Amino acid sequence: MVLLQGSIVAQALKNDIKAEVECILSENKRVPHLAAILVGENGASKTYVSNKIKACKEVGFQSTIINLDENVSQHVLINEIEKLNNNSSIDGILVQLPLPQQINEQDIVKSIHPSKDVDGFHPLNTGKLLTGNPDFIPATPLGIVLMLSHYNIETSGKKVVVIGRSNIVGRPISILLSQPGKNGDATLTVCHSRTNNIEQICLEADIVIAAVGIPNFIKGNMIKNGAVVIDVGITRVPDTSKKLGYSIKGDVAFDEVFEKCSYITPVPGGVGLMTIAALMKNTLHAYYLHEGN
Ligand code: GUN
Predict the structure, then answer these.
(1) Domain residues for 189?
(2) Statement to judge: residues 47 and 91 lie in one domain
(3) 74 catalytically annotated
(4) With 80 as the cut, is the pLDDT of residue 293 above it?
(5) Which of 59-63, 137-141, 289-293 shows the lowest mean pLDDT across its residues?
(6) What is the position in ligand 1's atom list of the atom closest to the CA of 139?
(7) 291 lies in a domain?
(8) Is the CB of residue 125 below 6 angstroms from any atom belonging to ligand 1?
(9) Rg of the chain, C-alpha, whole Å
């Protein structure tokens, strides 16, 4: 069993980006700039945003964080996004999800200018992805593909089972891996809460991608010998033995699964780190769209 180490792959990607920023600086140009909007006090969202800002600093990007109250109206939030859309020094805008219930997520996603949509959630960008002409690929699916590619894991002709049909992970990763060409050409099955016989379907998979957000959902008896297991889950579970009062659990019962699989991502230290590195890649892409290269 080989551990797919997000720490190593993400660091390599960030080093490449940092080298590009050094090139940009040597030409006396402005550096890429990411703006993150955080609404409310959700602990996990705060951590994600602060890790994204930390990564910006690491690679040499400028970053701005905008904190808005939990009760903010949709109108005020869209006004903030409009200001960032019209600010030519901002390359990427991300609004951390989920949002409070008074706000319609799709309206927010649509209000971000497509050329600054580093999450790749705008319908124009999802449409481009769907039609095989991607501009911004959502960061978690992009991170997964970069991870598979780094470890030379073949996808062509493989049976891939994705568990979860979210717009953030399940749907875009299934589109990416089924596309023709490098890192694609797989045969996809997308499972969800209404799927019958998930255990049996998983057992047939060469690659399992778990993105359900339920700790230990994938058990040892659901994995065929030699399969590749990608764990996208990052759930906080109360744990009094930890300083923070919680530990982070993936969707995969690691101790049962690792003996059977050929490759597996750890949690933490796997897909989560790749998501952040992929976001940096998308921000650099946005910068070149705005500045030319
Ligand atoms: N919430 C969970 N994952 C993501 C992500 O990739 N981007 C944003 N904006 N919010 C998220």
Answers:
(1) 139-273
(2) yes
(3) no
(4) no
(5) 289-293
(6) 6
(7) no
(8) no
(9) 19
Clarify whether residues 154 and 218 are in a common domain. Answer: yes
Q: Are residues 86 and 158 in the same domain?
A: no
pLDDT in tens, 85-108: 999 999 999 999 999 999 999 999
Is 90 exceeded by the pLDDT of residue 51? yes
Atom 4 (ligand 1): residue with closest C-alpha?
97
Tokens representing residue 24 in the block: 């940009």
Residue 11 annotated in active site:
no
Torsion sign over Cα 151, 192, 131, 187: positive
Instruction: Give domain status of residue 128, yes or no.
Output: no
The mean per-residue pLDDT over the stretch 138-151 comes to 98
Instruction: Give, in order, the Cα–Cα distances in Å from 49 to each of 70, 74, 258.
Output: 16, 20, 30
Tell me the CATH number at 177: 3.40.50.720
CATH code assigned at 90: 3.40.50.10860
Q: Is residue 9 part of a domain?
A: no
Query: Which residues 6+ apart lie within 8 Å of 135 measured at CB?
Result: 114, 120, 125, 128, 285
> Is residue 4 a part of any domain in this protein?
no
In tens, the pLDDT along 229-248 reads 999 999 999 999 999 999 99
- pLDDT at residue 278 above 80? yes
CA of 221 to the centre of ligand 1 (A): 31
Task: Give me the phi and psi of 53, to 5 degrees please.
Answer: -65, -40
pLDDT of residue 287: 98
Give, using CA atoms, the residue closest to atom 9 of ligand 1. 96
Q: Measured in angstroms, how far is the CA atom of residue 277 from the centroid of ligand 1?
A: 13
Q: What is the pLDDT of residue 96?
A: 98
Q: Is 52 tagged catalytic?
A: yes
- Structure confidence at residue 292 (pLDDT): 86
Residue whose C-alpha is closest to residue 186's, from 224, 217, 155: 155
Domain count, the chain: 2
